[in-house]
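Deliverable D5.2: sample structural annotation.
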Amino acid sequence: MLEQFVLSELEVEQYQVKEILKCLLHTVMFHRALGAFAPEDSDSPLFDLNFVRCSDKLIINTIEEKADAFSKALERSQKGQVVLGFFQKQAKSSWSIYPKEERVYWEQWSFPFTVVPSPVDLNERHRRKLLVEKMLMDRMMFIIRRVNEFQDHVPPVAGDCFPFDISFPQPSESWIWRR
């Protein structure tokens, strides 16, 4: 059964998008990568916080690439969402001689973003940065509470990490999009 988690919309400045998304994705991935990955402490270069991530280079590089691509996409649209999905591959019944596999998702995390203008006043800019930092920490704690609360739907792990994908669906592609 598919469990879906939708975080509250994140209203952030353009330069914050990539770092915030990396923090959130790494927080989920660390708690769902049940294989033999060593935990790795990571300090945010933008915010006064650190988070734990998996030491797996493929996961780190995938998150880096997707966060960079999403940040660039938001330069044009100002609004979007990222969906992190975990799935199992199952044989799809078909009459073809070539066996096909389909993805059966068992968990999805949605992160809606809106880019807001940067304040001109330095005091306001500092106040806003502290507010966003607190919002990010709250979202990370929400993730940690949810992964610990909701475990019954998690299938047995086969290998080091569950298969996952990270996408940027358009509003019409997903019923969980909020305006």
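Annotation notes: Residues 122-149 form the longest helix (28 residues). Helices lie at 17-32, 57-77, 122-149.
The annotation will be released with the project's public dataset once the embargo ends.
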